[in-house]
């Protein structure tokens, strides 16, 4: 069954891998599944046709025959469960890899999203500096914990897995703040993920869309 995902017609970052379709593309590339991309405008995302795919009016979505999924955690998990290459066969190792996916999404991504909000969206608020310091401290605390656990390993639990795919995808969003680079092993971990051929293909495909001239009209 052919897979179709949705992505930004024009990504705010110019297609440099920050929008969340990157992690879905990356997962599909890792397992060697071809896919189509349906590009949607900001306006189209809020219209009924797209809201039927994602009630929150966001990208990415995933369609495979009758199956419609939203939320990148669920999408990457689905891909990893149904294709070889992103989850170990051993049941315990598989459970641990899934744990790292959840860790990325529920214990790491929220503080990084807060950091983006505090750095960019709340810049004009009178309490900006005090809040930013608080949020940065929370990010540093999480990064210290992750850095300690990763040590000098390549990946969080043995071989590269969907857990690493999600963790790298989440962490790279913190690079612009400079905080990621304070943790040499985490910065190297993210770079290792980005160097994977599957990531490179995913990145190039997203970038190509955004480098093209805007659609007429
Ligand atoms: N929890 C959901 C998931 O994991 O799938 C979150 C999905 C989500 O946030 N989608 C964003 C979206 O559709 C795109 S990825 N936003 C439009 C809207 O809500 O109206 C977030 C994103 C967008 C752009 C950049 N960038 O360019 O820097 C980075 C991240």
Q: Secondary-structure map with pairings?
A:
Blueprint: E1 3-8, H1 21-31, E2 35-40, H2 48-51, E3 61-64, E4 67-70, H3 72-82, H4 91-121, H5 128-150, H6 162-171, H7 184-195, H8 197-211
Parallel strand pairs: 1-2
Antiparallel strand pairs: 1-3, 3-4
Helix pairs in contact: 1-3, 1-6, 1-8, 4-5, 4-6, 6-7
This protein binds S-(P-nitrobenzyl)glutathione.
Overview of the molecule:
The chain has 217 residues and is α+β, with helices and mostly antiparallel strands. It is built from 8 helices and 4 strands. The protein has helices spanning 21-31, 48-51, 72-82, 91-121, 128-150, 162-171, 184-195, 197-211; strands at residues 3-8, 35-40, 61-64, 67-70. It has a 4-stranded mixed sheet, covered by helices on one side. α1 links the parallel β1 and β2 (35-40). α1 runs antiparallel to α6 and α4 runs antiparallel to α5. It is globular. The model has no long low-confidence stretch (mean pLDDT 96). The site of S-(P-nitrobenzyl)glutathione has 12 residues, from loops. S-(P-nitrobenzyl)glutathione (GTB) binds next to loops.
Low-confidence spans: none
Determine the oligomeric state from the structure.
Answer: single chain
Rounded mean pLDDT is: 96
Structure classification: alpha+beta
Number of strands: 4
Q: What overall form do the CA principal axes indicate?
A: globular
Number of helices in the DSSP assignment = 8
Question: Approximately how much beta-strand content do the residues carry?
Answer: 5-15%
Helix share bin: 40-55%
Query: What is the straight-line distance between the termini?
Result: 33 Å
Please give the largest β-sheet.
Answer: 4 strands, mixed
Ligand roster: S-(P-nitrobenzyl)glutathione
In N-to-C order, the SSE pattern is EHEHEEHHHHHH
Spatial ordering of strands, largest sheet:
2-1-3-4
Cα Rg: 18 Å
